[in-house]
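Researcher: Quick test of sequence recovery. Tokens follow.
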């Protein structure tokens, strides 16, 4: 599997879901269109990066690096 996800509902009224993911290998995946925002904190090769995505009006292709770890908040 390219990306493994574990998620749960959020305890905050401002955040819908919280999830973690881990990429086992490199690859490309479809990022679906969504009317929500995502905040992604990615850890890769000892570096931490903050990514804000959305809303997206159409599906797009996204690269997935190997051995990445991404806690996400929607």
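Model:
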């Amino acid at each position: 599997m390219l990306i493994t996800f574990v998620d749960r509902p959020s305890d905050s009224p401002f955040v819908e879901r919280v999830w973690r993911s881990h990429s086992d290998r490199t690859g490309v995946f479809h990022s679906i269109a969504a009317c929500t925002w995502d905040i992604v904190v990615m850890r890769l090769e000892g570096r931490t990066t903050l990514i804000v995505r959305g809303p997206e009006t159409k599906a797009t292709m996204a690269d997935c690096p190997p051995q990445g770890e991404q806690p996400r908040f929607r």
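The chain has a mean pLDDT of 80.
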